[in-house]
Write a structure and sequence with these properties.
This protein is mainly alpha-helical. α1 runs antiparallel to α4. The longest helix has 40 residues.
C-alpha cells in the first residue's frame, strides 16, 4: 500500500501565485505631515477642553453644583430631592472625566508630535519585481 500525494489546487491565470490577499498586505506608512497634523489637532483639542474647564466657574454657579456636601444633603432630604443629588454627583463625575480626557489628549498629542518629529522619514513602498 502506497501513500498518495494530496491534491493541489491549481489557480488559473498568470500571476495568481504572486497575488496576496488584501488582509496580509502591508499598509503604507503615514506621511510625516499627517502625523504632525494629527498630533497638533489632538493637542489643540486638549487645550480647548482645559480652557473650557477653566472658564466653567464663570459660566455656571458651581457652588451649588459641585459641593459633595450639598449633594449628600439633598440625598438625605427625601425622595423628592434624591434625583437632584444624583444629578449633582453625575455632574462632578462628568467634569472629572472631561478633565482627565483633556489631559490624555494633551499627553497623547505631545507623544505623537515628538514621534512624528523625531522619527526617520518613511520609505516609499517600491513595487516588487517579477522574476
Amino acid at each position: 500500500m502506497t501513500r498518495q500525494r494530496r491534491l493541489r489546487v491549481v489557480s488559473s491565470g498568470v500571476g495568481a501565485a504572486e497575488r496576496q490577499r488584501p488582509v496580509f498586505r502591508k499598509r503604507k506608512p503615514k506621511r510625516r505631515s499627517r502625523l504632525i497634523l494629527e498630533a497638533v489637532l489632538m493637542m489643540a483639542g486638549g487645550v480647548g477642553l482645559l480652557v473650557l474647564l477653566l472658564q466653567l466657574p464663570q459660566l455656571i454657579d458651581l457652588d451649588s453644583l459641585l459641593l459633595v456636601s450639598t449633594a449628600l444633603a439633598h440625598l438625605i432630604g427625601g425622595l423628592s430631592q434624591l434625583l437632584m443629588g444624583v444629578l449633582q454627583l453625575l455632574g462632578v463625575l462628568l467634569l472629572g472625566g472631561l478633565a482627565l480626557l483633556a489631559l490624555l489628549c494633551l499627553l497623547g498629542g505631545l507623544v505623537r508630535f515628538v514621534r512624528a518629529v523625531v522619527a526617520p522619514a518613511p520609505k516609499t513602498a517600491q513595487p516588487k519585481r517579477r522574476r
